[in-house]
Amino acid sequence: MSLPEFKLLRPRSLEAAIGYLGEHAGNLRVLAGGTDLIPSMRQKLFEPEYVLDLRGIAAMRGITLQPDGGVEIGALTTLRAIERSDFLREHYAVLTEAAATVASPVLRNMGTIGGNICLDTRCLWYNQSLTWRKGCGFCIKKDGDLCHVAPGGSKCWAVFSGDTPPALLCLNAEIEIVSASGMRRIPLRDFYTGLGDDYRRLQTNELVTRVFLPASAADYHGVYRKLRVRGSIDYPLAGVAVVMKRSNGHVADARVGITAVNPAPLLVKGVDELLTGMAIDDALAEAVGNLAARTAKPLTTSALTPEYRRELIRVFTKRAVLAAAGNLIFFRA
Ligand SMILES: Cc1cc2nc3c(=O)[nH]c(=O)nc-3n(C[C@H](O)[C@H](O)[C@H](O)COP(=O)(O)OP(=O)(O)OC[C@H]3O[C@@H](n4cnc5c(N)ncnc54)[C@H](O)[C@@H]3O)c2cc1C
Ligand code: SF4
């Protein structure tokens, strides 16, 4: 599949990039690593007149320790750099674990944390060639007016399939968004809409520039578990991140994030209430698994059945909770 024609813009500074965004908003796509954008353009999911290649902006790259003990990660920092950061592995282990499961080493060398956060939602009926989609009469997410997954409805259920966002949600991460009108910093949990088509709160003239991890989220035990068809490369079909802080053998704080089973990555509600002050055992881990499975709403958007993906959310959550509590060390999915 060939790429559609486009004009390539290669700014060397954030200011220049913001200028281009303002000038061509609506007719432009942002390229970071390009590992998701380029295949999507080949499938003619996007045919922008301009592609804004951010890779020349050095200021948007790097992992920097903040005076308050938190960490700032530039949006262009590669997943490989995150996976290999000794500092992040020591203090924010759930993030390095999740980053290390994305795609394959080659794609992690190119793919960025900003691109992973902004990743388009996916569906069996959408991530296909133009000819394939045309043969099915298109769908709500692009060029059509019906949903093959939930016929009769008007909502798109395409699923968010990034690995690092559930880990970032568990770490209470914030992101910085910049446009010509200024800068805003928001909790990552407010970034996603929960819709499969218009899935993120980002205007066409805005860029995600930085990710912030608070000092208060450092040094938690962190675990990420993921279901995929091919262990060497695939997107998640279900993913679970768990962070936990313990004191005297009891849980002081815990969070669980899930991905690839809803149109947005989500924090599971009620985990803290269930676990705080408790010593983790099998039954408690199972109860958290049940909470996570109730939060997951998979539909037939991917190769495996919704029932199997929901069940694996339950099982992986239970295992991840036990592993984060130190009760089960070597159970890797
Ligand atoms: C075979 C294959 C397997 C994959 N497996 C996985 C997987 O297992 N897990 C996973 O999470 N992903 C997977 N991916 C998707 C992709 O490789 C990663 O999500 C990667 O992190 C995307 O980052 P990128 O920099 O390449 O994004 P790009 O492709 O450059 O961009 C992705 C999207 O984000 C937007 N964007 C990028 N950066 C910014 C920014 N700073 N501000 C605003 N918008 C921005 C782009 O416009 C585009 O819409 C896979 C891709 C392929 C081809
Ligand atoms: S969930 Fe429905 S509308 Fe959305 S991409 Fe899939 S088929 Fe299209």
Q: Which compounds are bound in this model?
A: flavin-adenine dinucleotide, iron/sulfur cluster
- The coarse overall form would be globular
| SS-based class | alpha+beta
Please tally the β strands and state the result. 12
Radius of gyration: 20 Å
Order of helices and strands: EHEHEEEHHHHHHHEEEEEEEHHH
* Assembly context of the chains: single chain
Task: Summarize the helices and strands and which ones pair or pack.
Elements: E1 7-9, H1 14-24, E2 28-31, H2 37-42, E3 50-53, E4 63-65, E5 71-74, H3 79-83, H4 86-91, H5 93-99, H6 105-110, H7 113-118, H8 130-135, H9 164-170, E6 174-179, E7 182-187, E8 207-213, E9 221-227, E10 238-247, E11 250-259, E12 266-267, H10 271-275, H11 282-295, H12 306-324
Parallel strand pairs: 1-3, 2-3
Antiparallel strand pairs: 4-5, 5-8, 6-7, 6-8, 9-10, 10-11, 11-12
Helix pairs in contact: 11-12
Bound molecules: flavin-adenine dinucleotide and iron/sulfur cluster.
Account of the protein in words:
With 333 residues, this protein is α+β, with helices and mostly antiparallel strands. It is 29% helix and 20% strand. The protein is built from twelve helices and twelve strands. The strands form three sheets. A five-stranded antiparallel beta sheet has the order 4-5-8-6-7. Strands 9-10-11-12 form a four-stranded antiparallel beta sheet, sandwiched between helices. Helix 11 runs antiparallel to helix 12. The protein is globular, with a radius of gyration of 20 Å. The site of flavin-adenine dinucleotide has 32 residues, from strand 2, helix 2, helix 6, helix 7 and strand 8.
